[in-house]
Each structure stands twice: as structure tokens, then as C-alpha cells.
Prior knowledge:
Layout: H1 6-9, H2 17-25, H3 36-49, E1 57-63, E2 69-75, E3 85-89, H4 103-113, E4 116-120, H5 132-146, H6 148-151, E5 159-164, H7 166-180, E6 189-193, H8 213-216, H9 225-235, E7 259-264, H10 270-282, E8 287-292, H11 306-322, H12 329-337, H13 340-343
Parallel strand pairs: 3-4, 3-5, 5-6, 6-7, 7-8
Antiparallel strand pairs: 1-2, 2-4
Amino acid sequence: MQYDTREKIAPLGVLSTEFEEHMKAHPFPPLAPPSAELRSVMEAQRIATQQPDTSTEYSVKITMRDGFSSEAHVHKPSAEGKHPLLVLLFGGGFMFGDCDQLSPYARLATKLSGVTVINLSYRRAPEYKFPTAPNDVWDGIQWITKNTETLQVDLAAGFVVGGVSAGGNLAAVTTQKAVDEGLSPPVTGLWLGVPWTLEPEVVPEKYKDVFFSREQCAGAPGLNQQAMDMFNIAYEPDLKSRDFSPFNAQNPHHGMPPTYIQVSGADPLRDDGLIYERALREAGVETKLMVYPNIPHLFPDFFQLKAFQDFHFDILSSWASLFKKSVAAEDIRHALANSPFASSS
């Protein structure tokens, strides 16, 4: 189905009865700005619980353009040899999250698709304003292309960039920049989970009528308009910069690699994903759009709900497809059933 009118899109934003019943029993706490003290405590806890490096999971340090040493986590298949590469970028409104966030997904990808995964870091707001985050990611991507022998990756066999939420924003602008600047080897695929790609000020005129999820889902659980405002105040992006939105590129969308996008229906970021997929498709890019009606922004805590199980299944299936790997559905379901997501539900 093509979501190209308000009449088709609006029903997606009504929360499902199943989700509302779940929220009554498990209310989601409101997001609040993390203090410097809380950040320090969380980082200390993260380091204390970190597993020691192994031959298949280890950390590397990447020097940024300003000399800052950024941490990245590498997850490798057990099989010897060079492997295709998946680069993942964590979410959290440019304020929360770290490169451990997507490690459970990375471990599943190494087993199911036989790819190496690198979880990049980027510095977060409010301590580090825009464009520090996109600069860090671009520096990380360039470092990867220059260190393929050390990493034992074969980018010609597959080089996919992906991210969730704010990480989806960074994945999109980084891949557009890679296309614009002729990055070699080129990015071969893009995966975006509930991405943030727009703000009202930069929505192209032809799509303005179908950009209304900010208003419709302003009071959604978890990520709502209040949280979006908090993130924008902390991040202070230049809304017209190509490092904020792929729509701001000089020649946006054309030449982009195959792109898979997952969108939650009752999410303030819903129309960011719907419009971006449509713009890419209209520019001749191969796309796949997966829409999950009547649920809010993705949170793994809701794994026991079928819609979120479907969302997680499609993440792993999308990665396999972007790498042109054949992975049986039953293998994906088995992996998820034995993952931390299922055990925490």
C-alpha cells in the first residue's frame, strides 16, 4: 500500500487496544534530560558490565577530526576470513544511547547473515551540539574504508549502513553524503528504523499535506512532541544543513543504494519515514517500506506484543536481504525467541 494521502495515513496513528491495555499495566516513564552526573553514573555502569574483548567482539578507538578518541564496537562471525560489513548507529534523540545499545542486534546479524557489524559512537547533546554527531559518524565511516584489512571486512561484498531513530537520521545523511562525495568503496544498502529525517521547516512543498504526524501523535507514549522539543533544544541543529536532513542535499535521493525503512504508525516520526521512502522511490531508488499500524516509537521493552515481534523480525530479515543473504524465517524466529528481547518480556 502506498501511503500518499492523509486519508490513508491518519488511521495508522490510532493506538491499538492491545497496546493501550499493555500501557495500563506497564506505563512508560516520561523522558527527561540526562544530567552530567547521571551520564557519568550510566557510563561507569556500562564500563563495569562490559565483557572483556574476545576474537569476535572487541572495541576499537577511532580518532575524530578534532583529536577526540571515539569508541566503536566490532562484532564478527565465528568463521574465518573477510566478511561484508554492517555499520549501526544507536538512537536516543541525539542525547541518549551509546554504542552498546544495538549489540544484541549485532550478535544476531553475525550469526544469521554472517556479516561483521561495527557499532559506531557519536558525541551527544547537550554537551556536543550539531554538527558534532554527523561529523563523528562521517569520520568513523571514512576510517572504516581505510582500515578494511585490519578489520578483515570485504566492503565490495556488502557495505550496509543503518540506524534507529536519531541514528536513522545520521545513517541517512551519512549515506547521502557518501553518494555525493563518491565514497569508495560505496555504501551498498541503507536500513532505517523509525528514522528522524525532517522538520516542518524543510518538508518539500509537494509533501507538506502528508506531514502531520508531529501533531497527530504529539501525545504518544514515550517519544512525544515534548521529547522532540527537548531534543531539538539540546541538539541545536541547522535545519537547512545537509548534515541534518538528506532532503537538504544539492541533489537529494538520486543514486542512493537500496533502502529499507520501518515506520511505526503512532509515532511523531512516522511521516519522516513515509515521506523519505516516497521521495527515494520517486527518484528511482529501490526501496522497501514496512509499516506497523497503531503502535508508537520503537522500544524493545514491548517485545511481548506481536507488532513489536514483527518489527524485530523485519529488522533481521531486512539486513539479510540487503546483503543478498538467504535466511530462513524459522531461523530468524528461533534466534529472536532465544535473544535478550524475548527473555526481558
